[in-house]
Structure of Flagellin:
Amino acid sequence: MRINNNVGMWAIRYLQNLQSTQNTQAQSLAQATIPIQQSVASTVIAERIRSQVNGYREVMMSVYNAIGVMNVAEGGIQNVSSNLQRMRELAVQASNGTLSEADRTALQQEFSQLAQGINRVVEQTTYNNRRVIGGDIRDMQVQLGPNEGQQMRVTLPGMDIRSLGLENVNLNNVENAQNALKALDTAIESVSNTRSYVGSVTNRLEGAARNLSTTMLNLTSSVSTLTDTDMARGVMDWLRTRLQQQATIGIIGQSNANAMNVLRLLG
């Protein structure tokens, strides 16, 4: 359940560097000016397009933040699923009536440790101080476009032992072990359905990001001829850095690092 600290530290340092780079890129875009020789009409047009670009940029930040939530959720769900599968294996073994008391005690100890591990994963799988698979993501609104009605809402269920219906499950005898199997099968199915939901949401968000990127490229290509900054290249550099940030967050989330430290870097 623990990760190599070197991986976590590398990812955090890399994320710091990306944040610094993105700040510089954003400042460059914000300070782009209209050359003095351009006409007043060109200036008005360029400023109008710049306003549109800023709107799309804010929407893209919303989309990429949501993708970050989904990446972190995927990492946590993967660990929860692995623990549940192992717990089921133990329940199958405990259903054997020929086990000695010592054998059953050993199985129960590992079973309890795995359950505690699931709760730890839930507590540590956070994004912006919200427990992504702890029930804190309820009706989260994500803006997919610059206009009204272009939103989607995302809800992720809690995956702690209590939420999964496994709070009172144990392997103390054959009957309890068989009851545990039923409860675990239900929990595993629930987690699997949530994982599929996360995948579908991620695909939709990535599709929205691609559409927004295309629109922004068209807008910035138009305005770049009116300003002294290559807006198209500047925005794409900014987007690339943002994507790298999200990928790094995903690495940390899937490695069970404490995401609170990571999100603090992103403000």
The chain has one domain: 5-265.
